Each structure stands twice: as C-alpha cells, then as structure tokens.
C-alpha cells in the first residue's frame, strides 16, 4: 500500500482525472494493491472521519472518483489479468483498463463487451452497466459478469455471483460503486478476431442526411455482430479525409463487426454503398480498432444522454443540426443503437430499466479553452432540450454526470430503485460510498413496539 499525501511527488498525477474540469485535493490517496489494503484504507477513513471516494480509470465526467479533503481509495495498482482460454473467462483486478484487457484477450482471439475507448476503467464502466462496440452481440459488460469480489463499507470481503450473494450480484449490474470497492471481476469471453472488419465511413455534415436515415433504417436489422455508431465529428486533417473536409463538421459511422472478416464485409456493404467521402473500413486487430476513438486526456468535458424508443426523421434532423455546431474539434455527438443481446436479457436480471430502448443519444462535449465552457455546456444541454420530444424517459447512467436523484431513479425505475435502496441499507447504511450515482440507503423499518 502506498499513501500519497499533498506534499508527495506523485500527488498531482494521482488526483488527476480524465476531465480537466475536476481539480480536487484529497487529504490522502490510498493506492491499494489488494483487498487487505482496501480494508486498511477504509479503516483509516473511519478512524479520522474522512469522506471516501473510490477511483479506478478516472473517467467519471463529474469527478465522482475524486474528493476534496477526503480519502481516495485508488484501485489502479490492482493490475492482475488472467485469461483462461479453456473456461473462456477472464479475471482482472479492479485497476485494469479496457485497453489492457483487450490487448491480453487479443492474443487468444477472445474478448467481451468493453469500452469504446482504451483508457476507461473496467471497474466503473462495468459497475455502471458497460455499453460498447460488442453489446448488440453479447450484451452489456455487466451481462457478461461471472462474479465480482468486493470489500464492503464495514471491511468485509464478499464475492457476488449467481450463486453467492445473488441479490448483491444483481445490484452490481448497473448499480455502480454503491455497495463496496470492487477488487476483482470475472467475465465470460467470446471469440473475436484476432482480425475484425472495422473502421469508419465519413460524409460532409451538410450532405449526410440520406446516409443518416439509411443508417437508422438498417442498423437494427443488421447482423448483431455489427457494432456501429453514428457520430457527429469535426473531420480531422488526416490523409484519408478529403482536404476540403478538414476541420469541418462531418458525420461518421464508426463500425466494427465481431464475426469473420468476410461476414463483416457483407454486413457493412449497405453502409458502404451510401457514397461516403472517406472509407477506411479494413481488417484490423480488434484491440487496435478499440483505440481508434481515443481522446487525449486533459480536456474539459461535459456530457449527457437519453434513451429513445424511436428516432424519427425529425429527431435525425436535430441530431444532424447539432452535429454541425460541435463546440470543439474534440467534441462528438453519438447515436448508439441499443438492442440485440443487450435488449434480450431478462429484465429481472439487472436493475437497469429500459433495456429494450432502441437508441441512446449522447452529446459528448470536449473543449480546451476555459473561455469556451459556457458555450460547450450550452451545446450539450441545447441538444438535450431539442431532442426531448423524441426521448422515452430513463437514462444510461455511465453517460451522464451529476444530474440529480430524479435521473438516477429514472435509470432504474421505482421498483428496482427501492430494491437497490434496501440493499444499500444492508451493505452501506451510512452511505460511505456516495461518490457515485448515489442510491440513498433505505432505513430498516422500526421494529413494532
Ligand atoms: C472517453 C470516454 C469514453 C467512454 N466510453 C464509454 C462507453 O463506450 N460506454 C460506457 O458505458 N461508458 C463510457 N464512458 C463512461 C465510463 O464508463 C464511466 O465514466 C465509468 O464510470 C468510468 O469508469 P472508470 O473506472 O474509468 O472511472 P472512475 O472515475 O475511476 O470511477 C467511476 C465511478 O465508478 C466508481 N468506481 C471506480 N472503481 C471502482 C471500484 N473498484 N469499486 C467500486 N466503485 C468504483 C467510482 O467511485 C465512480 O463513482 C466513457 C468515458 C470516457 C471519459
């Protein structure tokens, strides 16, 4: 265990998150290598009355994993990665990122649903549900969980699986870091690659409407191995992009097919036939594709999200309009299909409501100049306001920051929220783990006199 305090050399690195808007100064950061370290850190926080935050990949947009003045349980040193080709499972420590996970799986041609970028932590991503390129094929990351080891607020080490503490296991399918510090995750794996057909197609934003409508009409009927998102971007000054598009708004289809390269070519053909201005679809290692959208850390971030049961032409027009006014070259506007295996899970098996939603829209504002903050946040909020007529309620919590208890309740629905609150009351009655999309502990019914 390494304790990092404000005067220590590694302090600034250890308190830095992906979102540069977060600038918090904890009293101490406990860099934990195992469950015993986590127990010690939690005991230290109790002893000194310090508030606790738990940090892994540091991708929380609202900085939920960092705290002013408190104690941060930093699980990043937990880097165990163990892939078992025979049982087709992988067990990884709470500090592993999706890039590390996928590079290890690549060697064996095995993967599970992970992040759309390499730097996201397996921990926060999976505990929040975990939507990625492979979710139409194999469900969310949490749907692939075999078990989770965690240290609870009282310092107990527990394993949650379908057979051990099944109620807790249910809650860990989207209930976030509310129930303890996860030290290890075991996932089911699937054949992926090693090479997959993947890449992107690009259109100038002002000539993208037909392609966007065709994408909307095709994707849900396409093979479930196809992971494809519509993304409003600023075209980068890369060789594969026609020079006249450089630095201008563009519509991208970011695509990966998790089956054979031949099946992939077949599945994307209807999209390639939409006359893109740039086409860099090709066979590549899956782990290489997964890094194609990586953003530089150190930028300012604000995001939000909504579910949609339908995405009519009028909604596509709102999406395209906002894609033309991205606040910065790093900002993106995503439309992800939500369906396939992710929609087929038994609704009772996870607390997340609206698993059968058809789409998720996700304004993802990134910018560099603090003077642009108001404009960038205004852009993301403006999109939410203008797309509101086409939303279905509920929200995918991994894609938002602090938007209040109503949004958290909407993400689970009243019944599941009440069940989560009862469990929170059992595992964390004092709400030690509150740096998250917080579930308020239900207090036990007072005993009858
Ligand atoms: C560039 C980028 C791309 C993204 N892409 C996707 C995507 O494709 N799909 C998607 O679903 N989400 C995506 N996200 C959102 C991301 O999944 C969430 O922000 C997630 O919570 C990040 O997890 P983390 O471990 O990296 O972050 P952290 O900031 O370290 O933690 C996030 C939350 O999880 C809790 N937590 C972290 N580790 C533990 C642990 N070991 N035990 C208990 N609680 C813990 C923290 O306390 C905090 O509440 C993306 C985020 C970014 C910045």
Q: Which key phrases capture this entry?
A:
Uridine Diphospho-n-acetylenolpyruvylglucosamine Reductase, domain 3, 20 strands, Uridine Diphospho-n-acetylenolpyruvylglucosamine Reductase, domain 2, FAD binding, Vanillyl-alcohol Oxidase, Chain A, domain 3, alpha+beta, binds flavin-adenine dinucleotide, globular, 449 residues, FAD
Descriptive overview:
The protein has 449 residues and is α+β, with helices and mostly antiparallel strands. The protein folds into 3 domains: 2-74, Uridine Diphospho-n-acetylenolpyruvylglucosamine Reductase, domain 2 (2-Layer Sandwich), CATH 3.30.43.10; 81-191, Uridine Diphospho-n-acetylenolpyruvylglucosamine Reductase, domain 3 (2-Layer Sandwich); 195-399, 3-Layer(aba) Sandwich (Vanillyl-alcohol Oxidase, Chain A, domain 3), CATH 3.40.462. The protein contains 14 helices and 20 strands. Strands 12, 13, 14, 15, 16, 17, 18, 19 and 20 form a 9-stranded antiparallel sheet that branches. Strands 5-6-10-8-9 form a 5-stranded antiparallel sheet. A hairpin with a 4-residue loop joins strand 5 and strand 6 (89-93). Helix 10 (313-323) runs antiparallel to helix 12 (373-387) and helix 13 (405-412) crosses helix 14 (414-427). The model has no long low-confidence stretch (mean pLDDT 96). Flavin-adenine dinucleotide binds at residues 18, 53-60, 64-65, 75, 94, 115-117, 120-121, 123-125, 127-128, 130-132, 176-177, 181-182, 295, 398, 435-436. It comes from Arthrobacter crystallopoietes BAB-32.
């Amino acid at each position: 265990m390494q304790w990092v305090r404000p005067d220590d050399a590694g302090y600034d690195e250890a308190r830095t998150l992906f979102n540069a808007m977060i600038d918090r100064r904890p009293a101490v950061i406990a860099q934990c290598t195992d469950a015993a370290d986590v127990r010690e850190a939690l005991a230290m926080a109790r002893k000194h009355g310090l508030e606790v935050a738990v940090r892994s990949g540091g991708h929380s947009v609202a900085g939920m994993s960092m705290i002013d003045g408190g104690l941060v349980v930093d699980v990043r040193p937990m880097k165990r990665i163990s892939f078992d080709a025979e049982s087709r499972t992988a067990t990884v420590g709470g500090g592993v990122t999706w890039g590390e996970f996928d590079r290890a799986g690549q060697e064996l041609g095995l993967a599970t649903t992970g992040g759309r970028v390499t730097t996201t932590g397996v921990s926060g991503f999976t505990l929040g549900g975990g939507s990625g390129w492979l979710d139409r094929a194999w469900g969310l990351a949490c749907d692939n969980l075999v078990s989770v080891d965690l240290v609870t607020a009282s310092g107990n080490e527990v394993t949650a699986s379908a057979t051990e503490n099944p109620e807790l296991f249910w809650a860990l399918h989207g209930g976030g870091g509310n129930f303890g510090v996860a030290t290890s995750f075991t996932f089911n794996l699937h054949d992926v690659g090693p090479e997959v057909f993947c890449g992107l197609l690009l259109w100038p934003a002002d000539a993208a409407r037909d392609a966007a409508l065709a994408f909307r009409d095709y994707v849900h009927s396409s093979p479930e191995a196809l992971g494809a998102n519509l993304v409003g971007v600023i075209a980068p000054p890369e060789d594969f992009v026609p020079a006249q598009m450089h630095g201008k708004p563009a519509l991208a289809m970011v695509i990966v097919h998790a089956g054979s390269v031949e099946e992939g070519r077949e599945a994307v053909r209807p999209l390639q036939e939409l006359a893109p201005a740039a086409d860099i679809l090709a066979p590549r290692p899956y782990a290489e594709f997964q890094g194609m959208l990586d953003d530089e850390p150190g930028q300012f971030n604000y995001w939000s999200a909504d579910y949609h049961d339908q995405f009519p032409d009028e909604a596509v027009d709102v999406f395209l309009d906002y894609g033309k006014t991205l606040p910065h070259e790093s900002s993106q506007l995503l439309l992800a299909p939500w369906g396939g295996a992710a929609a087929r899970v038994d609704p009772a098996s996870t607390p997340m409501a609206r698993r059968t939603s058809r789409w998720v829209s996700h304004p993802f504002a990134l910018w560099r100049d603090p003077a642009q903050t108001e404009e960038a946040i205004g852009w993301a909020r403006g999109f939410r306001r203008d797309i509101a007529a086409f939303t279905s309620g509920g929200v995918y919590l991994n894609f938002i920051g602090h938007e209040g208890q109503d949004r958290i309740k909407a993400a689970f629905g009243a019944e599941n929220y009440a069940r989560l609150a009862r469990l929170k009351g059992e595992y964390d009655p004092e709400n030690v783990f509150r740096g998250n999309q917080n579930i308020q502990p239900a207090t036990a019914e007072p005993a009858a006199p």
